[in-house]
Design goal:
two-stranded antiparallel ribbon, SGNH_hydro_sf, SASA, Putative carbohydrate esterase, hydrolase, hydrolase activity
Length: 312
């Protein structure tokens, strides 16, 4: 395990570590308390592993790209949390190459500790459901493969079965997302979040009134996140639904596609293969979606999209 190499750091504390412990123990949302992992000072950990200081002998020609570290928040419901490979509440443990761990991709755990990211990314976040493969790891791998970052930090926040009304400002899920994103950004030196990846809406397809209200609720959510994270131009990449729990899928999809906000991108998941439950994306579909999200991010930031391989 990643932490086994860090036992010598357990006794080192920085000024805000006690407050982080306290805030974590009383965090709101559907994230029930878990067994405490060793407390790793976030700033120290990131400076050592995610943001290493180049050795004195490092070339002066090291590019800005090679030094770049990016933070991405993963939010929404089950298809963002990941159900790829899950059947009858069991995950098949198949991890495709595009989702395999690498020291260059970290995740913020439910205990606010940084660790090497691995599937299922949301295992300690969406704890009331069985998690499998989601789009987060293939997204991060594709961005790395494009040469646009030296390392990536993922902040998983998605919880299955949640409607957009449960993500409004002041709700436990919203406040948890903001706190986790703020802690991650502060640990990274205050550079902010590169983007929020949002896949949600299946639960809003059951009732017409929820589907019809989706657009206004989503717009309010985007504005509130930008305000509370102190990033007025924060990029948000949303996924247009591939499925839903009810019959008003098209109403929600229309609302998603009609949103007209700066720095809001929509990636359409319609047509991606679903699990037998006809609700959740398969593992291969999650890999493809991750590549689509990465291509969208790189395209928006005018990066090398040609280096992204999107599965057909």
């Amino acid at each position: 395990m990643f932490y086994s190499q860090l036992d010598d750091w357990d006794h080192i504390l920085f000024s805000s570590s006690n407050e982080l412990r306290r805030s974590n123990l009383r965090r709101p949302g559907k994230f029930p308390p878990a067994k405490m992992l060793p407390v790793i000072p976030l700033l120290l950990l990131l400076s050592t592993f995610l943001f290493p200081i180049p050795p004195a002998a490092a070339s002066e020609e090291q590019t800005a790209t090679e030094k770049k570290k990016l933070i991405f928040v993963l939010a929404g419901q089950s298809n963002m949390a990941g159900r790829g490979g899950v059947s009858d509440d069991r995950w098949d443990h198949f991890v495709p190459p595009e989702c395999r761990p690498t020291p260059s991709i970290l995740r913020l755990s439910s205990q606010l500790c940084w660790e090497e990211a691995r599937e299922p990314l949301h295992a300690d976040i969406d704890v009331l459901k069985t998690c499998g493969v989601g789009p987060g790891m293939p997204f991060a791998q594709a961005v790395l493969a494009a040469g646009e970052a030296a390392s990536i930090a993922l902040v998983p926040c998605a919880v299955g079965g949640t409607a957009i009304g449960e993500w409004g400002r002041g709700t436990p899920l919203y406040e948890t997302l903001v706190r986790r994103a703020t802690i991650a950004a502060a640990a990274a030196g205050g550079g902010g979040v590169a983007a929020v990846l949002w896949y949600q809406g299946e639960s809003d397809t059951v009732l017409r009134r929820d589907a019809e209200a989706y657009g206004s609720r989503m717009e309010r959510l985007v504005r509130d996140l930008r305000s509370d994270l102190g990033q007025p131009d924060l990029l948000l990449i949303q996924v247009a639904l591939a499925s839903g729990e009810g019959k008003f899928v098209e109403l929600v999809r229309e609302a998603q596609k009609e949103l007209k906000l700066d720095n809001l991108i929509t990636v359409d998941a319609q047509g991606l293969q679903l699990e037998p439950d006809q609700l959740h994306l398969t593992t291969q579909s999650q890999v493809k979606l991750g590549s689509m999200l990465a291509a969208s991010y790189l395209n928006h930031t005018n990066k090398h999209v040609h280096s992204i391989h999107v599965l057909k």
